[in-house]
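Re: the request from the purification team.
They wanted to know what the chain is likely to look like in 3D before they choose a buffer screen. I agreed to run a prediction and write the result into the notebook, where they can find it.
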Amino acid sequence: MNIFFALATGAMFGLGVYQLLRRDLIKSAMGFYILFTAINLLFLAVGAFNGESAAYVGISGQPSDPLVQALLLTAIVISFGSYALLLALINVSSRRYKTVDPDKVDQLKG
């Protein structure tokens, strides 16, 4: 199962970075979302349990550290808020300049 998490996280990171480097704002936003999901999957893989007991009980029977679950929940909320703000900015930019290609927007050049 750890190999599956590692391969899935690596593939999602690669796909997210690839989409981020595209010249379309919508595809870049999808790359951000894929990257945020890969980070959440990385947090989930770090806090994975052995499958023999509940997730909140550690391997030796002692209660596990809830920091991983708190970080995962916080990362999900922050990534959702960041993604909503990014989509709002893309919406405003596409309505104002009538394009989602950042190369075609002449007013952004300094």
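For the purification team: Helices lie at 2-20, 25-46, 67-97.
Please add any questions underneath this entry.
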